[in-house]
Amino acid sequence: MSKDSQTQNAAAAEPISVIIVGMGARASIYSTVALTNPELLRVVGVVDVNAERVEQARIMFNLPEDNCFSTIEDLLARPKMADAVINCTMDRLHVSTSIPLLRHGYDMLLEKPYALNDEEGQKLINCVQETGRKVMVCHILRYTPFYRALRRVIATGVIGEVINIHMVNQVGYLHESVSFVRGKYARAEVCGSGMLLTKCSHDLDIMSWLMGNNVPTSISSVGGVFQFKEEKAPEGAGTHCLNDCQLERECPFSARRLYIEHPMRWSNNVWHDTGTAPATDAEKEKILRRPDNPFSRCVHRCNISIVDHQSVLIHYQDGAIGTFTMNGGASTPRRLIHVTGTRGEIYGTFEDECFCVRQIEPGAPGGYTERTLDMSDFQQGDAHGGGDRSIVLDFVALLRGERISPGCPTLEDSITGHRMVFLAEESRMRGGAMLPW
């Protein structure tokens, strides 16, 4: 079939109809494709326990009230009314909501992680195999120009065989404060998952993707809470930033400074998760002064049950090694990668939008040649390098039977990366024990 014929067929195809399940921050981002490209995607319903978010979606997508639901059960009481579901519920609800929706006939774009552990994951895998439904997992970093170009370079063999992949996720102190210390992801009892699964399953998925068919043989991991605990609170620190803390003006985690005076990207999550939209700084401060506002608590007294730093060691079948480290509360958010091969190396930082390729060359000055691949024209400063939109477009293509990306993260293709996280967490809980794959 010619390219012109493919284009005409794509233009003639009906838009994929979807129901949003869990109208949180991630779903709000994915569903914008329905606004920018209504010929490709159409939102026809929404499910959320929060009435305000349901109303937001109803207005945004001009939905009939009959297509707005507060529970999954209400949706399932209706005959199938869309092609697919965008499932962005909390981590602990992914499997319990996905299985009945798949059995009801919906295909699915599922937010990561697809499950909390191996047992849960196998239930979901079994359901997909039994129903034949299509499921894509939201591993958006696979769609970024940075990692795609890096993978292509590895595939050419210019650095030889991969000996080691070292990756680091420096979680910036603002994101750490909002989401993982004061926010809903601070306690596994609430969100259902730990820091490695919630924040870093992207990273270990990328490592698995770069390694290709080279599967792990064993995994170990260590980590814990170093900074965000009671005994690290400085003398004079209170329990609440704006009400009883003597050090508020000098503390780097001051709620007033982070969310009002110097607001950056993640401060919007405070107002989103608080369920308010204050218009002025005075209104924001009034909200933060409420004694029950979780985002104003002292970061050292939040009693988090997730880790704030962790390292993982992976041994691969061919003898290669992968290492990954997460540090929470870093000065600057960064994802770093260094791939060492038998004939060269690749190293770079995702946020810098470029990486360097060095090849062994005895006759060259210094004994190597070097070139830099700049992805900035493609990523253009986007926090996820355009991955949010690209994965939705790939999902549309998958359901239409059109050509999809080579890195399309189907459920089956996401198993290795997730299982690496599951075993790493088990190892950490067992004091760093080396666990067989």
Radius of gyration, in Å, reads 23 Å
Low-pLDDT regions: 1-11
Structural class: alpha/beta
Helix content: 25-40%
CATH topology of the largest domain: Dihydrodipicolinate Reductase, domain 2
Please tally the β strands and state the result: 15
State the shape.
globular
What does this structure look like?
This protein has a nine-stranded mixed sheet. It has a six-stranded parallel sheet with strand order 3-2-1-4-5-6. With 437 residues, the protein is α/β, with parallel strands linked by helices. The radius of gyration is 23 Å and the shape is globular. Mean pLDDT is 92; it is low at 1-11. It has helices at 3-12, 25-30, 33-36, 51-60, 72-76, 94-103, 118-131, 145-156, 173-181, 188-191, 195-211, 241-244, 255-261, 267-274, 281-288, 376-379, 387-400, 415-429; strands at 16-21, 41-47, 68-69, 84-87, 107-110, 135-137, 162-172, 216-224, 309-316, 321-330, 334-341, 344-349, 354-360, 368-374, 435-436. The longest helix has 17 residues, at 195-211. It has three domains: 3-133, Rossmann fold (3-Layer(aba) Sandwich), CATH 3.40.50.720; 141-228 and 304-380 and 409-436, 2-Layer Sandwich (Dihydrodipicolinate Reductase, domain 2), CATH 3.30.360.10; 231-301, no CATH class. The chain is built from 18 helices and 15 strands. It is 37% helix and 22% strand. α6 packs parallel to α7 (118-131), α11 crosses α18 and α13 (255-261) runs antiparallel to α15 (281-288).
